[in-house]
Design goal:
By secondary structure, the chain is an alpha+beta fold. The protein has one domain. It has four helices and four strands; from the N terminus they run E-E-E-E-H-H-H-H. A hairpin with a 4-residue loop joins strand 3 and strand 4. Helix 1 packs across helix 3. The chain binds zinc ion (2 copies).
Length: 129
C-alpha cells in the first residue's frame, strides 16, 4: 500500500503536533469532500490528508480532512476530553453535531480557542504566543 501513502502534506495553518513535524504545506483542496464530515473543504480551511480504507472491495484512498475533524478523530469526543464519558463510567452523552463542530469544541477544551478565532493569517504554532 506504499503507493497510497501520502507525502505528509497539510493545508492552511500548521498545527503543533508531531504528525505535522515533517509535513509540507500543500494547496488547499477547495471543493473536495472532507473524509470525516459532510462539509467540503473551503478556501481558508485548515487540514491534513489521511488514508481511508474501505472493506469491500478493499481499497485505500487519500482524502483531505478538516483539522477540526482530524482532532476529533484523534482525541475523541468533547465529553471524553472533559472526562465525562463512558471511559469515566458515565453515560456517553448524546452529541449529534458533526465531527467538525465537535472538533471545534475539543480545540477550545485544549485551550486553543484563539486558534479558531484567528483570521487565517500566517501559519503559526497554536501554543506560541
Ligand atoms: Zn470535516
Ligand atoms: Zn471516553
Amino acid at each position: 500500500m506504499s503507493d497510497v501513502t501520502p507525502d505528509p502534506l497539510y493545508f492552511g495553518r500548521r498545527w503543533d503536533a508531531p504528525a505535522f513535524d515533517d509535513a509540507r504545506r500543500g494547496p488547499t483542496p477547495v471543493g473536495t469532500d472532507c473524509g470525516l464530515c459532510p462539509a467540503p473543504i473551503a478556501e481558508g480551511d485548515d487540514g491534513t490528508w489521511q488514508v481511508f480504507l474501505t472493506a469491500d472491495p478493499m481499497t485505500a484512498e487519500v482524502r483531505p480532512v478538516h483539522l477540526e475533524c482530524w482532532l476529533r478523530q484523534g482525541l475523541d469526543s468533547p465529553a471524553h476530553v472533559r472526562g465525562e464519558c463512558s471511559c469515566a463510567g458515565l453515560p456517553e452523552p448524546e452529541d449529534d453535531r458533526t465531527w467538525r463542530e465537535q472538533g471545534r469544541e475539543v480545540i477550545r477544551l485544549l485551550g486553543h480557542g484563539d486558534w479558531l478565532d484567528d483570521d487565517h493569517g500566517s501559519p503559526r504554532h497554536p501554543g506560541s504566543r
